[in-house]
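TA notes, week 10

Several of you asked for a full example with nothing omitted. So below is the full record: C-alpha cells for the whole chain, then the designed sequence directly under it. When grading your own attempts, check the secondary structure regions first.
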C-alpha cells in the first residue's frame, strides 16, 4: 500500500494552519513550517498518511522547494499531493491586520510583502495538484474542498479539472485559467416560477438548455475542451480551472458548470469536480 504525503503550501495568511488541522482530523500526521532539507526524512517513515505544511519560510531559494517537490513526486511507493492555498490580497491584508503578525517576506509595506510572496510562489502554484482560494471559505467548505482534492488524487489521472460557476456582479474568481460568459443566454431570473430556484434544479436547467443557442454554445465549448485539454496535459499542466459566469451566478452559469463537469467526467483520464462560488458565499 502506498504512503500518502500531502504538501500544504501557498500564500501566508491563506489558511495553511487551518487546512493542516483539518487534515489531522482526517487521520493525517501533520507537521507545520517544515524546512526543505528535513522533508525527505518523511519519505521512508512508517507513517502511512502525512501532511506537511511548507511555505516561503521552508527554503532560502525557490529552487530548493522545487527540487524537494520533484523528489517527492518520483519517490517509489508514495502517492503525493500538493495543495496550494491562496486568497485575495484584500483578504490577506485584513487577516494580517487582525492578527498583527509579521509577514515572512520583509518589504517596506505589508501590501508589498504580499505581492512579492505571490511572485515568488507562482512557480509552485503551477505544479500543484490542486489550488484552493480560501478568500470566502468557511471551515466546512474548506474541508469539503480538501476531501475532494485528496479523493481525486487517489486515482492517478492526467489532470484535475475544476469547473466553477460564478456571478460577474461579484467579480471574476482570481484562480481561474479559462473564463466563459453565458450572460447572452435567455435568463431564468425573469421567469417568476424559476427566479428563486437555481441551475441545480431540473426546471431551471431544462429552461436554459431549451434554446438552440444554448445547445449550440455547449457543443462549441465541449469541442474547445476536447481540443485544449490534451494539449494542457502534454505540457504537464496538473490543474485546470474553468470559470463559467452569468450575472448573479445562480441560474445559467450553474446549469452550464454542471453539464460541463458531467460531460468531462466521462473522459477516463480526467479528475473533474464542480463548485458554485455564489452558493458557497451565500449569495443565492
Amino acid at each position: 500500500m502506498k504512503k500518502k504525503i500531502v504538501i500544504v503550501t501557498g500564500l501566508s495568511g491563506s489558511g495553511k494552519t487551518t487546512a493542516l488541522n483539518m487534515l489531522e482530523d482526517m487521520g493525517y500526521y501533520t507537521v507545520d513550517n517544515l524546512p526543505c532539507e528535513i522533508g525527505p526524512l518523511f519519505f521512508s517513515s512508517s507513517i502511512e498518511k502525512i501532511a506537511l505544511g511548507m511555505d516561503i519560510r521552508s527554503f532560502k531559494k525557490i529552487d530548493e522547494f522545487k527540487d524537494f517537490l520533484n523528489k517527492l513526486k518520483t519517490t517509489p511507493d508514495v502517492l503525493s499531493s500538493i495543495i496550494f492555498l491562496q486568497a485575495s490580497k484584500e483578504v490577506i491584508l485584513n487577516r494580517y491586520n487582525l492578527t498583527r503578525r509579521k509577514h515572512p517576506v520583509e518589504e517596506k509595506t505589508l501590501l508589498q510583502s504580499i505581492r512579492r510572496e505571490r511572485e515568488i510562489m507562482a512557480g509552485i502554484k503551477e505544479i500543484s495538484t490542486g489550488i484552493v482560494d480560501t478568500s470566502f471559505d468557511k471551515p466546512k467548505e474548506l474541508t469539503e474542498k480538501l476531501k475532494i482534492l485528496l479523493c481525486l488524487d487517489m486515482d492517478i489521472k492526467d489532470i484535475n479539472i475544476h469547473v466553477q460557476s460564478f456571478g460577474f456582479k461579484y467579480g471574476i474568481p482570481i484562480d481561474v485559467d479559462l473564463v466563459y460568459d453565458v450572460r447572452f443566454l435567455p435568463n431564468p431570473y425573469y421567469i417568476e416560477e424559476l427566479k428563486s430556484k437555481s441551475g441545480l434544479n431540473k426546471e431551471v436547467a431544462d429552461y436554459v438548455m431549451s434554446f438552440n443557442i444554448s445547445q449550440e454554445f455547449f457543443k462549441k465549448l465541449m469541442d474547445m475542451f476536447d481540443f485544449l485539454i490534451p494539449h494542457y496535459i502534454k505540457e504537464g499542466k496538473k490543474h485546470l480551472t474553468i470559470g463559467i459566469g452569468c450575472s448573479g451566478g445562480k441560474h445559467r452559469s450553474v446549469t452550464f458548470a454542471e453539464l460541463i463537469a458531467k460531460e468531462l467526467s466521462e473522459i477516463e483520464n480526467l479528475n473533474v469536480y464542480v463548485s458554485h462560488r455564489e452558493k458557497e458565499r451565500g449569495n443565492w
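Residues 3-150 form a domain with the Rossmann fold fold (CATH 3.40.50.300). Use that as a sanity check on your answer.
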